[in-house]
Amino acid sequence: MSNPVVLITGALTGIGRATAVAFARTGAKLVVSGRRPAEGAALEAELRELGADAFFVQADVRHDQDVRHLVDQAVSRFGRLDVAVNNAGTEGRPGPVTEQTADSYAATFDTNVLGTLLSLKHELRVMTAQRSGVVINISSTYGHEGAAYASVYAGSKHAVEGITKSAALEVAGTGVRVNAVAPGPTETGMLDRFTGTPENKAALAGGVPLARLGKPEDIAAAVIYLASAGAAFVTGQILTVDGGKTAG
Fold first, then answer.
1. Do the Cβ atoms of 139 and 164 come closer than 8 Å?
2. How far is CA 5 from CA 1, 28, 133, 166, 184, in A?
3. Helices and strands in the chain: count of H runs, count of E runs
4. Is the dihedral of CA 165, 220, 107, 37 positive or negative?
5. How many angstroms separate the CA atoms of 89 and 182, rounded?
6. Which domains occur in the chain, in start order?
7. Per-residue model confidence as pLDDT tens digits over 117-160
8. Residue 213, H or E segment
9. Are 137 and 162 in contact (CB under 8 A)?
10. Which one of the listed residues 105, 142, 149, 153 is annotated catalytic?
11. Which tens digit of pLDDT belongs to each residue from 26-53?
12. CA distance linking residue 53 with residue 7, whole number of Å
């Protein structure tokens, strides 16, 4: 539909921000969320300058009431919810399995897995009643591969992909689609924190046949496609966008 109502979690930086800008340029109405109100207000202003009807809602996806409030605010403002992009995530604490703790597990899984589950819970509550809508979760190539020193992060993204497929099957008869995008190495603050050094980041790029790291805009373009009428028969799928990194 034209001028869809789009909700994006983790919208303040990186892939989330690029996705918000991309949707704004298509004429979407936007609800963007994150935990930092000053940055949220700045993003809201930027999206409005692009001509979008946009507003920011402070929310922490780890908390059920925050997510309920976020979704309810979107519906209160625009009357419906057409697209939801569940992008909020964290890399957690990279390192060997032997150094992981219950705290490092919770810090990663509470955002990446619980946050995705709670977001789906409230988004699907609205969309199934409408009998229309699209949800796109943001996973990672580590959601279907192993990665040394990233066991907790990889485990969390494997969970996101399993939840995505399961939710898609649950709502398949309602007119609602649920998919995920799995980025490869992408130029974001998370990648900088994860790799630690320019040399490590360069090594990742060297493993991509296209010989470059992805850009947030590359991932945003895949999200836009999955939200579009062109993907009307696509649900329960993981769209890998990694420049060919996992093709071998």
1. yes
2. 10, 6, 10, 24, 27
3. 9, 7
4. negative
5. 13
6. 5-241 (3.40.50.720)
7. 999 999 999 999 999 999 999 999 999 999 899 999 999 999 99
8. none
9. no
10. 153
11. 999 999 999 999 999 999 999 999 999 9
12. 12
Amino acid at 197: T
C-alpha distances out from residue 207 to 9, 116, 212, 216, Å: 30, 29, 9, 18
- The answer to whether the CB of 143 falls within 8 A of the CB of 82 is no
Work out the widest C-alpha separation in the chain, in whole angstroms.
Answer: 51
* Surface-to-core class of residue 131, CB atoms within 10 Å of its CB (0-12 exposed, 13-18 middle, 19+ buried): exposed
Is 153 one of the annotated active-site residues of the chain? yes
Exposure of 93 by Cβ count < 10 A (0-12 exposed, 13-18 middle, 19+ buried)?
A: middle
Are 200 and 192 contacting, i.e. CB atoms less than 8 angstroms apart? no
Q: Cα separation of 14 and 54, whole Å?
A: 18
3-state secondary structure of 149: coil
Give me 53's structure tokens.
């009807």
The model's pTM: 0.95
